[in-house]
Specification:
The complex is a heterodimer of chains A (about 325) and B (about 350). Chain A contains 12 helices and 12 strands. Chain A has about 325 residues and is an alpha/beta fold. Chain B has 14 helices and 12 strands. In chain B, the strands form 2 sheets. Chain B has an 8-stranded mixed sheet with strand order 6-7-8-3-9-10-12-11, with helices on both faces. Chain B starts with a helix and ends with a helix. Classes of the chains: A alpha/beta (about 325), B alpha/beta (about 350). At the A-B interface, helix 7, helix 8, helix 9, helix 10 and helix 11 of A face helix 8 and helix 9 of B.
Chain lengths: ~325, ~350
Amino acid sequence: MPADPPDPAIAVDDLTVRFVRRDGIADAVNGVSFALQPGEVLTILGESGSGKSVTLKALMGLLPDYARVEGRIRVAGRDLLSLKPAELARLRGGTVSMVFQEPITALDPVYTIGHQIAETLVQHEGLSRSAAMRRALELLERVKIPSAARRLKNYPHELSGGMRQRAMIALALACKPAVLLADEPTTALDVTVQIQILLLLRQLQQELGMAVLFVTHDVGVAAEISDRIAVMYAGRLVETGTVREVLRARRHPYTRGLLASTVHGGMRGRDLDMIPGNPPSLAELPPGCAFAPRCKEAIESCHRVAPPAVRINDGAMVRCIHAAPALDYRAAGVPA
Amino acid sequence: MTAPGTSRALQAIESLDPRDRGGPLQPLLRVEHLTKHFPVRGGLLNRKIATVQAVDDVSFTVGKGEVLGIVGESGCGKSTTARLLMGLIKPDAGALVFDGDEVGEDLTITALRRQMQMVFQDSYASLNPRLPIVDSIAYAPRMHGIRPAAARARAEALLAQVGLAPAQFARRYPHELSGGQRQRVNIARALALEPRLVILDEAVSALDKSVEAQVLNLLRELKARFSLTYIFISHDLNVVEYVSDRVLVMYLGKIVEIGPVEAIYARPRHPYTRALLASKPTLDPDRRTTEQPLTGDPPNPINPPSGCRFRTRCEFAEARCAESEPPLEPALEGELGHFTACHLPWAQAPHRAG
């Protein structure tokens, strides 16, 4: 569907997610804004606890009751946070679809693969059983599952890990989604299978013109799949840009540290230039830049003032005090 | 093999490590024809219906002070190999020779474990949740007859060595630590008996990259300080290239290639090794992978293919590959110590074939 003014597939504005429970409050996502254009692959790259998966779950309306979500999320032109549960359910699996890290937990163990795909088509597109089964077969062929007709009758546990992941992708693509959300879909796989799934996702994304929001902790996976990368740390996006900009310019000290601690053979025989310490606890984030306690380049004001999001060019952003030398924080007297 | 008496006489002469027996050239560990087949039971009477050939006739050596990396897909037998080496499961066949002493003959399993320790992937599951970490570390020395006070002192010293200040951390419980800190505790515990060989089975795989780098640096430092030898098992090809001196590639319970790390990564000879390395995601968005190096998942290790086990996924496979199993032989134009198990010379170096 060619929309005349290119409406972003996803527009997230100042998203905040706070987990409020009896034993405390965790600030999982702290003011995240980004836009995903139609046909684009945007990767959120971050370590565990960075808030990348929480962001993705917020986009699907899949957060638990104790999550307090604020900000604006527009998915395919609809305001997600104001949708009624039934409308949300129609959006999920229809316009927006999701693939997870563990297909075995995402697929229903008591129904065959074919049944599950057909069920989605009956629910969302009102197809008849037999028409839905025919489409399910096409989908399994599309994700290159060998002897698809036979696999249609298999239960999830009868498939290998790679085949299950393909089956989940087929299920996710059943209703021709405009947006695919992928949460570490290759992390549990062997490298030899991981690259197959990445190539498949890339091919399907191009053929179907889908927008894909991909979440991973793996720089290599991000380099293989992304058009743009958003680096996330302690619930904030610290750097965004095209895949080349982020991997080469490395404007944020955390991006530099992350890439320097991503080991490769060229580093043999010498110590790794590592990031000291651990990520901060989301229950007690430091007042200034959350990365400052681990940052070699931190200056005094980094510990007091949250750094501004500095726009480098159209689409590229870095959230670091050193990127904004013109601003004098001491003079501004920003409260800590 | 030298008789125990002779090597004891020789040991004092030139070695720096008083525990060293055979000198620097004798491998610290020699693994000979190690085999483990697991029965698969099923059916009404729970009879054996198939066998998983988890590790099948595997032989290799680990030199003193070196790091041997073991790579392969899931189900290739790399973790089973580690568990066999530690005596955590009993091999069906094969022998282990630790610095000249055959395990089970000259050396008991208990004595072996004093010299060989292991660190596992799951840092939480491998610590007792009800013990403060200092007691977890002191446990093995106490079991091996060291007085409680001395064992505790050693545990605290080790905590400091792995970068956890004893005053701050000694009394903490595993759940009060981060994953990286817990893995440091596991490393300290593995070192508590002053072993010479440490098996690291996916020891950094569950950690975030920034923490993984810290632990890899720590492992380097400890290796130098305590003159350790490592067997480093991982699915992460980049990490294995970084830490290893030699690399062993396994496929469905067999060694397909072994050699110096530079040779394996720069001039791999086995088609499987080449495909495995080509599957590594690139870090350069301008040189993305465009062709999948292998199709399908690793086959089920139950009843593996006849002959060369890789032949069902190998682009070069011929009739003879199904007929006989290729022996592990010096690789084509390989350097010293580079061995591969492949029948076909043109499959070993396809760029020269055309």
